């Protein structure tokens, strides 16, 4: 259920896999995405199971309406029940015990924390978001709340790797013009993009040096959802929060 759960100085970082939930095929089992066609009651049950496994109250988890942009929302609690969820691709909070969640199925989930300043962030970095600068935008919002890049811990979760993320040559050139480190080639010799490498390069330029990757390619792993592999599929989640 929880593929990775790391704790650093009171900051928690967790990434799910696809198992331990109640969703039926093709969303089997632990789909946490509410906008992919799965039954809403199954998604609610899965979110409850994942939260329980992490020792979290599911009502104290903040989700996003992700749109592949660079918008950031600073939050101090969950959205109002029944109200609109803002269209953003990064969340930031200083509220201890409030978990921020990001959904992915090939894109790079980026979790950030400065426990000294008491600031955490979750970002959804797909190819368009990485190019648009969603991760630098999240770091900027964190520093505006007292974080220091040199103190920030960054963890990136399961995502499609540069050896598998095949794109047209023109797209690779466009992405590489914005972020040269994202230039890649597939294992079979065709143009590719490495979004995680682009994110790491962006973080390094900002002075964030404590960066670790989960080391899982979603397209290659049957334990994880991959939109590029399956199209109709579920969503994984990354969670970040600070101890109360």
TrEMBL record:
Gene3D superfamilies named in the record: CNF1/YfiH-like putative cysteine hydrolases (3.60.140.10)
Which residue windows are coiled coil?
Answer: none
**Reaction catalysed by this enzyme:** adenosine + H2O + H(+) = inosine + NH4(+); S-methyl-5'-thioadenosine + phosphate = 5-(methylsulfanyl)-alpha-D-ribose 1-phosphate + adenine; inosine + phosphate = alpha-D-ribose 1-phosphate + hypoxanthine; adenosine + phosphate = alpha-D-ribose 1-phosphate + adenine
Signal peptide span? none
Gene Ontology molecular function: copper ion binding; hydrolase activity; oxidoreductase activity; S-methyl-5-thioadenosine phosphorylase activity
User: Pfam families from the xrefs?
Assistant: Cu-oxidase_4
**Cofactor needs:** Zn(2+); Cu(2+)
Top-rank taxon, per record: Bacteria
Keywords noted in UniProt: Copper, Hydrolase, Metal-binding, Oxidoreductase, Transferase, Zinc
Q: Does the keyword field hold Zinc?
A: yes
Q: Summarize the protein's role.
A: Purine nucleoside enzyme that catalyzes the phosphorolysis of adenosine and inosine nucleosides, yielding D-ribose 1-phosphate and the respective free bases, adenine and hypoxanthine. Also catalyzes the phosphorolysis of S-methyl-5'-thioadenosine into adenine and S-methyl-5-thio-alpha-D-ribose 1-phosphate. Also has adenosine deaminase activity.
Q: Which family would the database say this protein is a member of?
A: Belongs to the purine nucleoside phosphorylase YfiH/LACC1 family.
- State the oligomer form and interacting partners: Homodimer.
Q: What is this protein called?
A: Purine nucleoside phosphorylase
Which organism's genome codes for this protein?
Streptomyces termitum
Specify the taxonomic lineage: Bacteria, Bacillati, Actinomycetota, Actinomycetes, Kitasatosporales
């Amino acid at each position: 259920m929880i593929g990775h759960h790391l704790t650093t100085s009171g900051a928690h970082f967790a990434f799910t896999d696809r198992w331990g939930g109640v969703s039926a095929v093709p969303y089997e089992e632990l789909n946490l995405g509410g906008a992919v066609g799965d039954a809403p009651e199954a998604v609610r049950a899965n979110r409850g199971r994942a939260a329980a496994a992490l020792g979290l109250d599911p009502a104290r988890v903040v989700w996003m309406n992700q749109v592949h942009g660079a918008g950031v929302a600073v939050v101090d609690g969950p959205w109002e029940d029944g109200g609109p969820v803002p269209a953003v691709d990064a969340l930031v909070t200083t509220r201890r015990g409030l978990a921020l969640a990001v959904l992915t199925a090939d894109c790079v989930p980026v979790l950030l924390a400065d426990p000294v300043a008491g600031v955490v962030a979750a970002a959804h970095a797909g190819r368009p978001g990485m190019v648009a600068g969603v991760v630098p935008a999240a770091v900027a919002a964190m520093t505006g709340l007292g974080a220091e890049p040199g103190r920030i811990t960054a963890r990136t979760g399961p995502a499609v790797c540069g050896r598998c993320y095949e794109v047209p040559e023109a797209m690779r050139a466009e992405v590489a013009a914005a972020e040269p480190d994202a230039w890649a080639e597939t294992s079979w010799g065709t143009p590719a993009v490495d979004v995680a490498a682009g994110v790491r390069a962006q973080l390094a330029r900002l002075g964030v040096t404590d960066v670790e990757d989960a080391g899982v390619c979603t397209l290659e792993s049957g334990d994880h959802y991959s939109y590029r592999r399956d199209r109709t599929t579920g969503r994984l989640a990354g969670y970040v929060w600070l101890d109360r």
